[in-house]
Amino acid sequence: MTNGFEDLGHSRPDTAREARTGLPEVVYGPGKTVAEIVAVVDSLLAANTGPVLVTRVEPAVADAVLADVGAGGAHVPAGRLLVWRPAAPRGFVLAVVSAGTSDGPVAAEAAEVARAVGLTVRRFADVGVAGLHRLLAVRDEIAAADAVVCVAGMEGALPSVVGGLVGAPVIAVPTSIGYGATLDGVTALLAMMSSCAAGMTVVNIDSGFSAAMAAFRIAASRERAAATGDTIARPAGATVRPTGPAPATAGREGGTVERMVHLETNVDDVTGEVLGHLVERLLTAGAADAWVAPVVMKKSRPAHTVHVLAATSAVAECERIVLAETGSLGLRRTSVDRVALPRTTTTVDVGGHRVRVKTGPWGSKPEHDDVVAAATALGLPLRAVAARAGAAAQPAAASLDDAAGPVPDAAGATSGEPDDVV
């Protein structure tokens, strides 16, 4: 493997595309043998960490490829798609709007590819402009999306109408559906390209895949802007200088933004004992955090909301645990950013007992389990042991605080000395 690609003889998969664009190269299935598809998929899986997709695959080919590649892949018949390692939800909602039932297969491809790369999809079918009242009935729901894909053949005016009704980016997909004068989609294509709805994107005929990829680029650009203030795609390794500190880390350097997934579900028939056990299981399984909050549901029923914060790699296992332990029939997934400040863990001695203390830029805190063990052995109150541990950890706290730099006062000025860590 050299220069960012692997020479397989029949193909040269671009193994470095994920580093440049955020997604591995996608494999177009038609025209390739099963063996060729398998070889390319194996290469991409080995060289990348993101989702690997094969488009336009027939059922027999899909079954043969899955049998050769092994576990981890899935066939999505509605989208004629093979998927390995689908992305976690990114918190970006894509509305997929189709004019007629016959446009459904192209809309399905757009929807399933979008789901595979982490977009949340809302489908709106059979809302062509020949029955405008059907479109207006769901206008508010469509307008709430972050981007809209419009799929139409005989009703090629649909994207123009939607583009005049919503403020989100609109991606138009002409289809080859229709009678003679549709010219296999060319008529719809020209109508969409001639639209007076300014700024509309138009992709190739029948290419739901291209529409989903356009939506992914919009989502990725938004994520870059949120994290760094920079919306320009850059080569791997390029340095991006943020325009300013993130609000949550203002005045301190070293904070990092991590993409996480927030899971939640409401339950009204699970005991406190089970919920406590659930939280422990989730934390043991790799969740970054798990907690339970009381809520009031419809008909004033008391209930609890189970919350889980997890990295992408732990999401599937955390979902399985929540559904198995609570009996819930579903849960919600939201992609979130977590700001993490630098921290260190030191071990101090309290009366001959080891107590771990976690220290960050703004303070330190002893580990509760260690404090309980020491307090029990010494016959002292918890607060007394915690205070001793905190005092013993002060040198480490001061060291980390010095590294963080001076702290701004209310007017934004900084003193020459860092603040004290309490």
Automatic annotation (TrEMBL):
<dbReference type="GO" id="GO:0016787">
    <property type="term" value="F:hydrolase activity"/>
</dbReference>
<feature type="region of interest" description="Disordered">
    <location>
        <begin position="1"/>
        <end position="23"/>
    </location>
</feature>
<feature type="domain" description="PurE">
    <location>
        <begin position="92"/>
        <end position="224"/>
    </location>
</feature>
<feature type="region of interest" description="Disordered">
    <location>
        <begin position="395"/>
        <end position="422"/>
    </location>
</feature>
<dbReference type="InterPro" id="IPR002822">
    <property type="entry name" value="Ni_insertion"/>
</dbReference>
<dbReference type="InterPro" id="IPR039476">
    <property type="entry name" value="P2CMN_synthase_LarB"/>
</dbReference>
<feature type="compositionally biased region" description="Low complexity">
    <location>
        <begin position="395"/>
        <end position="413"/>
    </location>
</feature>
<protein>
    <recommendedName>
        <fullName>PurE domain-containing protein</fullName>
    </recommendedName>
</protein>
<dbReference type="InterPro" id="IPR000031">
    <property type="entry name" value="PurE_dom"/>
</dbReference>
<dbReference type="Pfam" id="PF00731">
    <property type="entry name" value="AIRC"/>
</dbReference>
<dbReference type="GO" id="GO:0006189">
    <property type="term" value="P:'de novo' IMP biosynthetic process"/>
</dbReference>
<feature type="compositionally biased region" description="Basic and acidic residues">
    <location>
        <begin position="7"/>
        <end position="20"/>
    </location>
</feature>
<dbReference type="Pfam" id="PF01969">
    <property type="entry name" value="Ni_insertion"/>
</dbReference>
